[in-house]
Specification:
CATH class of the domain at 454-611: Alpha Beta
Oligomer: single chain
Structural class: alpha/beta
Radius of gyration: 32 Å
Length: 695
Amino acid sequence: MVLGELTVPLTRLSGVGPAALRDLAKLGVTDCGKLLQHFPRDHVNRKDEVTLRTALVSGVHVNTLVQVTDHDWFGPPSRRTLKLLIVDREGTQAEIPCYHRNFLEKIYPVGASGWLWGTVEIKFQHPQVSSFQLEPPPEGRTFGDPLEQVGKLEPLYPLAGHLTQTGLAKAVAQTFQLFVVGLEDDLPAILIEKYRIPPLRQLLWSAHFPENLEQRAQTYHHLAYRELFHLQTAVRRRPLSQAVSLRPGQTFSRRLQKELLLRLPFELTPDQDKVIDEIVTDLESDRPMGRLLQGDVGSGKTLVAFLSALPLIEAGYQCALMAPTELLALQHAENAGRLLDPLGVRVAYLTGNLRASGRNSVREALAEGNIDFVIGTHALFSTDIRFKNLRYVIIDEQHRFGVSQRQALAQKGQLPDLLLMSATPIPRTLALTAFGDLKTSVIRTMPLGRKPIVTHTAKQSNQTKVYEFVRHELQAGRQAYFVYPLIESSESLDLKDAETMVKYLAENIFPEFTVAMVHSRVDDDDKKRVMEEFSAGKIQVLVATSVVEVGVDVANATCMVIEHAERFGLSALHQLRGRVGRSTLASFCFLVYSENLTEVGKQRLKVMMSTTDGFQIAEEDLKLRGPGDLTGVRQSGYLKLRTADLARDFELLVQARDDVEAVFLADPGLLTVGNSGVRRLWEKAPPFSDDLVAL
C-alpha cells in the first residue's frame, strides 16, 4: 500500500465524532491518509528545562516538573475555582488557577508531581501560571528526575473549529497504530540508498513525533525532497519533455533577419543577440522547441520574437503571436506592421471583436497560407481558425493564459515550436516547476540610455505634492498615467475609482491639459482612439485601471501615479511602473497609499522602494503571496506543498530535478510505474493540480 491509497475513514478512529469530522474537513483532512499528511506547523520544545524563576525573568514559557503542595479555592460558592499551589525543584512557588478544570483536584492531589508548561506572570503579588498544560510524568519517573528524561517535543497543528492539539495528536497516533502497516516507499530504491532515506512510515512518525530537533530537521528535509521529486517527475512526464525527433533538422536562411537589423536605428543588447541565437538553434533542431523567454519590462522581448520568426517566415512557414488583451495585441500588430511590412512579410490582426467581414477575410487568408504572421488574442484558437502551415507559436504574457488555451493554439499546427514570453519575471523555483520541461532564456540587460525609474511613496493626505510634481512634468511637455483599483465607485469599498477621478483631475487638478480614460469597459474603438491620441501626445494625462499594466509603450510618458498602491500585487506594481522609463528621459513612479496600511501592504511598498529588479521582486512576491497565478495555473489547485518551500528549497529542487533526469535516462519505466508504486501514488493522490500535470 502506498500513502495515497490509505483512504480509511476517520470514523474508524475513537474520539472522532461528527463535529470533529466537520472541523477536520475544513483543514482538507477527509481520511486517515490525509491526516498523516496534516503535518505540525511547529513543535514545542519541552526537552529543555525552564524553571519558574527563569520563565519569570526571561519571559519564556515555563517547562519543568512541579509538585502540588496544597489546594485552594477562590470565587463565589456557586462558581468556586480550584487553585493548585505548586513548587518546582529550585524551591520557587507559584499558583495555577484552574478555570473550568476543577477536576484536576482529583488528578493532582497534594504531593502529586506534574509536568508543567505555560505562561508565568506576577498577579496579585504572586507568580501565576496561565494558559497551562499539566501532565503526569511518564510511569516510573519522579519529581526528582532530570527533565531531559521525561520531556518531549510536542506537535502544534493548524486547527479549525473546536479541534485541540491533544485530540489531533491522539488521532494521528491511532492511525499509526491501527492502519499504517506495510506502507510502501514511493521513491526508486537507488535514491533511498543514495541519500540514506529512512522508511516512509518512520519518516511520517518522526514528522509528527520527533525525538529531538535534529531528527525533526532531517525528517522534513527528506519529506521535502520526496515532494519535490514527485513534482519533477510530473514535469518530466509531460508530453513536451518526452517528445522525440519528429522532423528532420534544417538550416534556415537569416537574410530577412539581417535586413531588419540593418533597418533598426539602434543595436541589440548582448542578451538580445544571445537569445535570438538560442531560439534559432532550437528552431533548426530535429524536435519541436519549448522555450520560456523572460525579460524585465522594456527589455526588448517583442523585438526578439519578431526577429526569431523571420527565418521561419522566409522558409514559407506561418507564425502566430497570442496576447492576453486587445490593447496589447493591437500594439504588437502595429509594431509588426511597421517593422515587417517593408520586408514583404504579410501581417494580420485577429481578435474576437473584429467585424465579421474582416474576420472571414483573415480566416480564409490563414487557411490558404496568404498570411505569414498573425497577431491576436484568444480568438486565434477558435475552432473556425485554421492554418495552412503553422510552425511557430509565440505566447506573450503567458501567465495570463491557462494551460488549455496554450495547448489549443499549439494544436493548430503539427507540434509547432513554442515560445512563452513573460515580462513578469518568474522566480527560479517556479521556473523549474511549472516550466521545468522548457529551456529558459533571460534578457537582463536594458537598452542603452535607459535611466532607472525613481520611485516615491506618498500618503493620500500628501497627494497634493504628487499633483504639483506631475504638473511640472506636464508643463515640460511630458505625459502621465494615473491608475486606480476600481472602474467605478463601490459602496463596500472606500477606494478611489477611475470614472470619478477622471472628472476630478480634468476639472480641478489639470484643467489646462487634456485628460482621458481607458479601462476594460470602454468601447474598443474608443479605447483604440484614446491610446492612439495618447501615443501621439494629444492627451497629456491618461486615467486607467490595470488595463495598462502590459503592452502600453509611450516613450514620452514620464510619470506613473498608482492610487491605493497597497491594493495591487507586487507583480502588478512592477508592470505598471514599467510603463514609464521607456526612453532616455528621467521617469518617476508615485505609490500613493491609504492611511491604514496592512503589514502585507507595507512589505509590498518596501520591496518596490528597494529595487527595480523584476527578478528580485518576483522572488519577494513568491514569499508574500505564494505561487498563485505567477505561472498561469489556477491558484486554488496549484502547488499545495506540504513540507517543501519553493522560496527556501531551491537547491533541493535542483537536486530532485537532476535525480529525476538521471533515473529517466537509466530506466524510463521507473518514472511511470516505479519499483514501489510511483505511478499509483500519482494517480491516487496527486499533491498538485491536474493542470500542472497536463501543462
